[in-house]
From TrEMBL:
CDD domains recorded: cupin_DRT102
Residues of the signal peptide: 1-20
Record protein name field: Quercetin dioxygenase-like cupin family protein
Organism: Agrilutibacter niabensis
Positions of the ChrR-like cupin domain: 49-145
Gene3D superfamilies assigned: Jelly Rolls
Amino acid sequence: MTPTRCAILVLVLATGSLSAATSQQQRRLTPDEIDRIASATGGPGTSGLPGVAMTVLYGDPKQAGLYTIRLKVAPDTVIEAHTHKDTRTATVVSGTWYFGYGKKNTPEEVRELPAGSFYTEPAGDAHFARTHADGAVVLITGYGPTDTEYLN
């Protein structure tokens, strides 16, 4: 193989590898496409409750690295006080999310967060949530690996 052909082959292989790595990081999803991704009722960083469906949108919450998950929470769901080992940020996409900090989930301690609201879940800080009749959809981003440890 001539030096020129060898250089072209190296360039093609390097560009192909770069494109493959970039395409794994780039993600554009419509709501319909998100709805077609498999959801689970358990998994790292979730409540494990049957009324909470989790969809991984980016990354892997079980591994080191950035991840984003979507929680679809059924109406009248109560998530008891728990912690996560990673710091997380969240945005309420639809419905109303009732979220609070502390070691016990009581209605008096929650704050009503309508769609468009933002909140944080600092690593190791106990928090809890609930929904009412309209349920909620929440996007959560963190840096894994994550977990969920209930206090009770």
